[in-house]
Amino acid sequence: MEDSITVRFLSQTNYKKAIATCRLTLLDKQIILKGHGYMGPTRILANYYSREEHERNNIPIKIVQWGTKDEEHIIYVWYRKEKKEWQPIVAEKYHISTQF
Questions:
Q1: What's the superkingdom here (predicted)?
Q2: Would you state the pLDDT for residue 84?
Q3: I need a surface site. Which of 11, 61, 62, 80 has the fewest CB within 10 A?
């Protein structure tokens, strides 16, 4: 069986299926984007939401991290709620030593 903890799989899979398939996460939290600058790995969301948009609206975002099989990388996935399901916005892979 192919390792499911990949950027390709996670960027195409809704949250519910990703959690059921990959189970163990390093981080799983929900935040509200509103009036805060993009910092750390969350800065990638600037490609999807304008500063004006997230300053005007409460935008719920789910951030989930998985460790890769090689134990040298972390995959971050950002999700947004669409039609009652958390759908991926983007998935990015970083080396564990990456500092933001």
A1: Bacteria
A2: 92
A3: 11
